[in-house]
TrEMBL record:
Source species of the chain: freshwater metagenome
Membrane-topology descriptor: Single-pass membrane protein
Any Pfam family matching the protein: TatA_B_E
Protein name: Unannotated protein
Keyword Transmembrane helix: yes
Keyword annotations of the record: Membrane, Protein transport, Translocation, Transmembrane, Transmembrane helix, Transport
Annotated localization: Membrane
């Protein structure tokens, strides 16, 4: 997510020791972990409520799907697939029902 490697984590830890102090660092780490857990729970709750409020058809909703580009691409692909199947059916019907040009 943040693309932080081991070297950066060690550097941030050393900076945190200097800024906060070694005696208060464990309590700060515990508080940060609690904050992250609470934020994750809130986001899951919000996603669940959004799925419930949108109703049927949105059971497989993902937060990434709410990005406008992704949302439009997903729905356009569905329309294109529906049209492609309709065109395929029309071509099959034309093959089956070839008319004699003299009849027309």
């Amino acid at each position: 997510m943040f693309d932080i490697g081991a070297g950066e984590m060690i550097g941030l830890g050393i900076i945190a020791i200097f800024l906060v102090g070694p005696e208060r660092l464990p309590k700060l780490a515990v508080d940060a972990a609690k904050l992250l857990k609470k934020a994750r729970n809130l986001s899951q709750l919000a996603t669940t409520q959004l799925r419930e409020n949108l109703g049927p058809g949105f059971e497989d909703l993902d937060v990434k799907d709410l990005h406008p580009k992704t949302f439009i691409k997903k729905h356009l692909n569905e329309v294109i697939e529906d049209n492609a199947s309709a065109v395929k059916e029309i071509k099959e019907i034309k093959k089956i029902t070839k008319l004699d040009p003299e009849i027309l």
